[in-house]
Give the backbone structure.
Amino acid sequence: MPLPDVLRKLLTAAGPSGYETAPAAVFAEAGRAFTDDVEVDVMGSAVARVKGTTPGAPFLAVVGHIDEIGLIVTHVDDNGFLRFMGVGGWDPQILVGQRVELMTRNGVVAGVAGRKAIHLLKEEEREKVPKLRDLHIDIGARDGDEARELVRIGDVAVIAGEPLELRNDRVVSRSMDNRLGAFIALETARLIAEAGGAPGDVAAVGVVQEEITFGGARTSSYRLEPGLAIVVDVTHETGSPGVEVNEIGKHEFGSGPVIERGSILNPVIYELLHAAAERE
């Protein structure tokens, strides 16, 4: 099946942690298609709430985070190259040679993440995994002055590229973690609205800053005070080479959603989800 339009918009909206304005706007716009009760709070988290049919019934929040990992500029050197840190957790090997888009006050600036050419690396350097401090971003600037006119310290970047649809309904994309969970939260609320509502209120919540502080989830919990919450996030596909199923369990593509279970999770909600999964 083709990639849903709302999911595509979420995946392509640049929004590293702390800079989620674009994906929050997409989330809110999608929510307004099925409810008038839509808001974006002071933290930047977005909520689309569907009114319940039974007074006093529990209020359910379905939550997915809308931030993504990114890069933040820390220095512009005199040759025009940008140095940066990660926003969230990165595997630096993924970045080498990647095209990136920098979000600046004057719009998007294109660049490429790179490191010293392999031909120039000493033998011991070749055997080491690069760290973020070994990398730079080249935006094609002639020198530092030109680069500083285009980019400021604190500007953020994401990997550039459209979602890629593969065979068997599989999709590769930046920010799948966790715009997919945010999309599922929206779809849950939309389907409930189309069905005439649930007994209690149901809100799709797109929270910010999960990759760094969980700030959006914390503040939304206190502000909304749901009676129960279901958090939707991504996990590892265990059919991939090298994955140890003895450590994380077996859940391959096509096997359905994974229901998390553990000491910090509510056992009553788990049993309800498990029973629903068995019925379906």
Remarks:
- The first strand starts at residue 37 and ends at 40.
- The mean pLDDT is 95.
